[in-house]
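Journal club side-thread
Mid-discussion, someone asked how the predicted structure for our own chain would compare to the paper's figures. Pasting it here so we can look after the session.
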Amino acid sequence: MLFKMLTEHIKDYPKLNEVCHEMIRKGYNIVNISTTSISPEELDYIMIEIVMENHSGDRKLLHFTNGLVNSMEFEKISSHSEKIHPNLLLNKELIHNKEFKRKIFGGFDMDEVNLFLDLIIKDYKYIEQGLLKENKLLKEDMKKLRGL
């Protein structure tokens, strides 16, 4: 139900809606949507990340931000066969090989770097909060079963 509501929310952003429909016409489906919203005082900021996948397993992540920074970028992400875990968006090759665009007056595009770092943070949060706890519980269960 929440997924359907978030999918409907895309229509509130015409540019984002247009890009999503274009990808759907190309054979992609929306498989995951996550949002971040901040509203300190009179400043509204929203970030929507949409994972889209086609029938071949090619996956793309669409970053959309509206507020302080308005941007929309696609990022190719690893396919299911290249992934360590279905909830992780990145793998070591994608992180190692990532190249950022340079601004006209030197330096990297900070928006692009921040979006990529947000992906890494999400993966590590999942690792810390999910996989490591699960691993600890499984080890404890194994000790109990072995009678240690």
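Post-session note: The chain has a mean pLDDT of 79.
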